[in-house]
Write a structure and sequence with these properties.
Layout: E1 2-7, H1 15-28, E2 33-38, H2 42-52, E3 57-59, H3 61-74, E4 80-84, H4 101-108, E5 111-116, H5 125-135, E6 140-146, H6 153-163, E7 167-172, H7 196-209, H8 212-217, E8 220-221, E9 236-240, E10 245-247, H9 250-259, E11 261-265, E12 278-281, E13 283-284, H10 290-295, H11 297-308, E14 312-316, E15 324-327, E16 330-331, E17 336-342, E18 350-356, E19 368-373, E20 377-380, E21 387-391, E22 396-400, E23 402-404, E24 407-410, E25 412-414, H12 420-427
Parallel strand pairs: 1-4, 1-5, 2-3, 2-4, 5-6, 6-7, 9-11, 9-12, 12-14, 14-24, 15-17
Antiparallel strand pairs: 1-8, 10-13, 15-16, 17-20, 18-19, 18-21, 19-25, 21-22, 23-24
Length: 429
Amino acid sequence: MKGIMISAPNSNSGKTVITAALLYSLKKEGFDISAFKTGPDQVDRKILEIISGKRAGNLDPFMMGQKGIEFSLNISNSEYALIEGVMGCFDGMGTTSENSSFDTAEKIGSDIVLVYAPQGEMFTLIPKLKGMIEFSKNRIRGIILNKLNPKLFPLYKKMIEDNLKLQVLGFFPKVSEFEIEESGLGLDIDERLKEKKFLDVLYKIVKENIDIQKLLNLFQPLKTDTKIEIKKTNTRTAIAMDEAFNLYYSENIFLLENSTEVNYFSPFKDTELPDCNFLYLGSGQINKYKDALSQNIKIKTAIKKFAEAGGKILAEGEGLSYLFEDLDGFKMCGIFQGSVESTSTLQNFGYKQLEFMQDCILGKKGTLLNAAEYHKSKATTKLSPIFTVKKPYANISFKDAYVYKNCLGLFQNIHFIYNIENLYNLIQS
């Protein structure tokens, strides 16, 4: 597999739209291509999956380890990989470049194309770019200028190529309709980017302004050697998948589909659970659909009955809200005592290190696990949390995660691939 990473000097640079445009264009031109998102972001990964029509993966060394990111690339079975970076190119954990887009690119052997939006500058961008190129050990090989007046492109192109060893691949004009608005838990992934008209406009811009052949020439063979043996079990897994529950790490789904018998269901629409002995509730837009979820009494009753009978349940991220007694006053499953309140801001955002203070369905007391947190929910409960949660590179820690019988709920999201034994703890009797 050959790949390239699309990165930028900072967030809000237009990486997502430009990566989406390139992905759709390459797919439309007939290339066998999969997409990946650097870091833990499930929303951007979902966008890339919708556009490509193929499984999109995450590449996160902290949450997945070196073997995990190679495994994610390996199972895509595509000829090409287009990788969207995260934040600024060198922005990592705390004040380091660890786990940054650049760090990940080094670990998988990918070169980088930079998305750069000049803002009131001309030659000043040369020393800026030179510093980034040198710091990347010449891994930054190309650049796409964003939000640019088309009349200025020839000037910028000549200036950059005269002064730097950097290929200018083209530009993207400033068009307000290409700004993807935030909605609920991240981007509104279900409407805008499913519009063929919108994607076709992006394709037209790429055809007119980006040298696709130059881009393809920058794709390099990636490290995809890692193969992980997956044990087949007799476990029957039910996974919630609908408008409300739709954000899962695709590697987790792949592992479950290859180690258990998986059936999908909708807490939003279905009235009974599939035949299962493990239930997986992921994140999504539970807050948005809380009214409809509260009205589906039959499925809530079935889930609670499953829990009372000792069935295993893992609920993570926003999915945890569904297992409390109520969410913003709307009745939920009532497995965990207490209530959840939706908030306007993110709660405890970022990477976390989890330490188990007692045994649970994921592992034994003392187990350590890396995770990420991204939700707008706050629980009020008298239950005793079972995890110590620490934020790396910061003197911040708190207690979180709740158990009831064989049910575990946590606001953090985890990757099974980090320690596959956690997965087998879940799915084995």
